[in-house]
Design goal:
The protein is of the alpha/beta class. It has ten helices and five strands; from the N terminus they run ααααααββαβαβαβα. Helix 7 links the parallel strand 2 and strand 3.
Length: 289
């Protein structure tokens, strides 16, 4: 078919690219803060070139054809890149679907005297790019989920720093809600630092934990038990009056665990356990003669 979409796309590739770019730049929702116009053109040109190279009259109606593997790979790269750059699913979807309009315009101009052929070619392009759009959105969502998962892990690591406050003494200030997943991170971080530093005392400071219920208490008790198995003693500090009342009200047994009201009190107790004494030294100033 001399006037088919394949030949038209290859013959008028530059025209389709220009029209597509113009439509994207004319879109008020275009995020120019996330991508420069040059990068947008480079990305769009790469996709147009790939389509012109891959499409044939035989595979245009076979979206599952292995011929499109390279196209899908490129779409996946674009989707994940846009997910990491901060584009929304809608913006990424419109990027692909706006290509349809550019190709439709070309078909309309070239096939104005052949409405039946125009209809057939428009259907082919529409089905193909709709499929590309779906694949792009699926990949985008997967990429966004990976970004969120990585950020969640990073936040969990940052929010549970294990600090060596003295030789043989570790402190772990916990900020925010302590759930099962976070308890696992806390426990792994603390146990690994005990091994790395050879510390014998660990202080769990819960001053930054908004509320303590029976579930949080169970998580703390598990962490203390794991610490003891490593041969270290554990002190829980930051027991505010309201937390103490809650613990009593819930009947949670912390009698086998050393608890302190503040991190300072816990550190002082840790010093006494290690037979360390901190003294203030009065410095006598020399008189000037």
């Amino acid at each position: 078919m001399a006037t088919g979409i394949i030949q038209l796309l290859k013959r008028h590739k530059a025209q389709v690219l220009d029209t597509w770019i113009q439509k994207q730049l004319a879109n008020e929702e275009l995020r120019e803060d996330l991508m420069t116009n040059d990068d947008l053109r480079t990305q769009s040109e790469e996709l147009i070139d790939m389509l012109a190279k891959t499409l044939t009259e035989e595979n245009i109606n076979q979206i599952d054809s292995a011929d499109f593997d390279e196209v899908f790979e490129l779409l996946a790269t674009i989707s994940i890149s846009r997910a990491r750059q901060g584009f929304s699913p809608r913006e990424t979807g419109l990027y692909i679907f706006s290509l349809k309009e550019a190709i439709f315009e070309l078909l309309q101009k070239q096939l104005v005297d052949a409405p039946a052929t125009l209809y057939t070619e428009v259907l082919k392009v529409s089905r193909l790019l709709d499929s590309f759009g779906v694949v792009t959105l699926e990949t985008f969502i997967k990429g966004r989920e990976e970004v969120i998962y990585r950020q969640t892990e990073e936040i969990a690591d940052i929010s549970t720093p294990v600090i060596q406050v003295w030789d043989g003494i570790l402190a772990l200030p916990i900020i925010g809600t302590l759930d099962s997943a976070r308890t696992q991170v806390v426990m792994e971080s603390l146990l690994q630092r005990i091994v790395d530093t050879g510390s014998s005392i660990a202080i769990l400071d819960i001053s930054g934990v908004p509320a303590v219920d029976s579930l949080v208490a169970q998580h703390l008790i598990k962490t203390v038990s794991a610490t003891r198995l490593m041969g270290a003693d554990c002190i829980i500090s930051g027991i505010r009056p309201e937390i103490a009342q809650t613990v009593v009200h819930l009947g949670i047994d912390l009698s086998n665990i050393i608890t302190k009201a503040s991190l300072a009190s816990a550190l002082k107790h840790a010093f006494s356990m290690n037979k360390l004494v901190v003294k203030r030294i009065d410095v006598v100033e020399k008189k000037a003669f």
